[in-house]
Amino acid sequence: MITARKVFTLGFVLLLGALPWVVGSYGQTLLDYIGLATIVVLGLVLLTGVGGLTSFGQAAFVGMGAYTSAYLSTVAGWSPWWGLAAALLLVTGAALVLGWITLRMSGHYLPLSTLAWGLSIYLVFGNMQAIGGQTGMSGIPPLHLFGWAITTARQYHYLIWGVVLLIVWTVHNMLDSREGRAMRALKGGTLMAEAMGVNTTRFKTILFVLAAQYACVSGWLYAHMQGFVNPTPFSLGAGIEYLFMGVVGGIGDLWGSVLGSSLYSLLRQWLQDVLPQLLGRTGSFEGLAFGVLMILILQRAPEGLWSHVRALGGRWRQAGAAPSAPQAPPLGERARPAPGEAVLQVRELSKRFGGLIANNAISFEVRAGEVLALIGPNGAGKSTLFNCISAVDRASSGQVSFLGRRVEHKDSRAVAAMGMSRTFQHVRLLARMSVLDNVALGAHLRGHHSFVASAWRLDRAQEASIQATAWRQLERCGLAEHAHQAAGSLPLGLQRVVEIARALATDPCLLLLDEPAAGLRYLEKRNLAQLLQQLRAQGLAILLVEHDLDFVMGLADRVVAMDFGEKIAEGLPREVSRHPAVVEAYLGGLDEPASQPAGEAA
Question: Which contiguous run of DSSP H or E holds residue 17?
Fold first, then answer.
C-alpha cells in the first residue's frame, strides 16, 4: 500500500536527483556540505533524541575520520576505502573508551564531559606535527568507486546523499524493532526498561558508538572531497553547531536532521552575505543571530520545526480503519508451575537505609494460582519490599527464592528473564510510543536478533511474532481498540492496565502489581478484578500491593499486613481485616467504652 511516508520519501529522492542540475556549482557544493552535516546530526538523533544523551563532541569524531584516512592515503599510500575501515576501527575503539567513561555520568556532568574530550581531541589535531599541526594536510586523493574517480561536486552530491538515505533507512528499520524499542526506552524509562530485561548500559553504548561512526563517515567523505584538512572544522564550536542543527530540525526525528542541517547551512550562508551589508562592516555577526534564533525555536517549537511539519501532515491524513490483529503466530510460552506450588519465598528479608529500617525480617510465600495481597498504610515499606523482591534494590539481609532459586543477589534483568514481572506505583509508560509498542517492550527478552539484523530487516519474522504477542495481551486486557494510540493519550486507569499487559508480555510465572487500582473508577476496578481472577485461574501467581481494602478483600486469597516495616498479620482476608494490629494501623484503634461515673448504680 502506498502511504504518505512513501510518497514523501520518493519525492525527496527525486528532488535530490534533480537539484544538482538546477543549481550552480556553488549550490552543488553547499548541498554537499548540508549532506555531510546531516550524517553527523543523524547520529545525534540516535544519541540525544532517542537515547537522551547530550554530546557536544561529535566534531572530534568527524576529525578523527578525516585525519585517519587523510594520513593513511597520503603518507602510507593506502586506498581511501582501507582508510575508511581503519578510521572506523579507530573511532569505534575511541568511542568505546570514551563511552565507558562518559556514560557513567548523569545530569549536567555528561554534556560537560563531552565538552572536555571534544576540546582535548581538537587540541591534539592542532598540535600533532605528524598530521600537519595547525597547517593541516593537503594532497588527499579523491575517492574511486567501481573504477570511476569521484572528483566533481555533482558526483560527491550523489555519493553523500546516498549515504544519508542509507543511514535514514537503516536507522528507521532499527527503531522499528525489538532493539529499537529498547533504545527508545532509554529516554526517561531506564528503571522500567531494566525491569523488562533491557540492558540499558549496552544500548547507551551502542548509540554512542553508532553516532561516532556516522561522524567518522562524514569526516572521511569531507577529507576526500576537499583534498585538504586542517583542525578548524573539527573544533568545539563545530560540535555545538551540529547539536544546534538537530535542535532546530527536531532532535527526535530522522527527517528533522535533514531539515535542521539544511536550514542552518542556508541561513548561515545568507546571514554571512547580508549582515555585513546591513551593519557596514564584516564580522561573525551570524553567531548573535543564531543565538536569538535558538531562543525563539526553544520557546515556540521545543521539539523542533519538523514537529510542525509532522502535525500538518497529520491533518491531511484520513482516519484509519479499526486496528486489526497481526497474522503472525505469537511467541511460545514457558512451562508453568503446578497449582499450589511455591513460586516466591521471602525469608527474613530486611532493608536498611542508614539508620532507617524500611523492612525488618519479612517472611511469606506466594503460590501458583493465588493472589497474595500486601497491605499497610503509607510508609509501611510495601514498595521498598517490592523493589527488593524484583531486584530493583538489593536487600540488606535475608533470602528471596524464585522458582526454587536464590535471586536476592541478581539484577532486575536476570529476575525478569526467570519469569518475574512487575508494574510500578507511578505509571511508567513511554508516552509517545503506541500502546502496542509499549506492550511489545515487555517481550524484549523473548527475542534474539541484534540491532544489526534489525537495521537490514532480517528480523521481520521475529518482530511479527512479538507484535502478535503484544496484541494477544491487549486483547486479554480489553485494550485492543487502543493498540495504535499513543500511550500518553489514554486516561490513567487505562494506562495502568497497559502496564499489566506489558508485564504479561514477558510471559511471567509471578506478577508483581504495585497499586494497580490507584486512580481507577468503579467499573475500571471491577474489570481489573475480573482480569486478575482470570489470570489466577490460569495458574499465574500474583503479589499485589494495594491501599483499596474493598478491592483487596474481594480478590485476594491471602493477605499480609505491614506497618512501619514490620509484618503485623498474615492470613485469610476476613481474619486479617479483624486483626487488632491491622485495625490499629488503619484506624488508630477502637475507642474503649467510657467508664461509668463514680456514684452511679447499674
Answer: helix 4-18
What burial class does residue 351 get, using C-beta atoms within 10 Å of its C-beta: 0-12 exposed, 13-18 middle, 19+ buried?
buried
Distances (CA, A) of 67 to 227, 298, 309: 11, 35, 38
| C-alpha dist (Å) from residue 481 to 29, 105, 435, 477, 517 | 50, 41, 10, 11, 21
C-beta separation of 429 from 488 below 8 A: yes
Q: Count CB atoms within 10 A of the CB of residue 599.
A: 5
CB proximity list for 190: less than 8 A, separation 6 or greater: 200
Task: Enter the C-alpha cell of residue 552.
Answer: 483487596
| Cβ(203)–Cβ(82) below 8 Å | no
Task: With CA atoms as reference, report the closest residue to 475 among 326, 295, 290, 373.
Answer: 326
How confident is the model over 495-522, as pLDDT tens digits? 999 999 999 999 999 999 998 988 788 8
Digit-coded pLDDT (tens) for 20-73: 999 988 899 999 999 999 999 999 999 999 999 999 999 999 999 999 999 999
Cα gap 507→420, rounded to integer Å = 9
The Cα–Cα gap between 219 and 209 comes to 15
Q: Which of 442, 417, 414, 431 is nearest to 503 (CA)?
A: 442
Residue with cell 554530546: 55
Whole-angstrom CA distances from 439 to 383, 434, 472, 476 are 23, 9, 10, 12
Please report where in the chains the cell 547539536 appears, as a residue: 243
DSSP assignments along 200-226, one per residue: HHHHHHHHHHHHHHHHHHHHHHHHHHH
How far is Cα of residue 516 from the mean position of the Cα atoms in its chain? 24
Q: What is the pTM of this model?
A: 0.91
CB neighbour list of residue 347: distance below 8 Å, 6 or more residues apart? 363, 398, 399, 400, 401
- Nearest CA-CA partner of 548 in 528, 531, 534, 570: 528
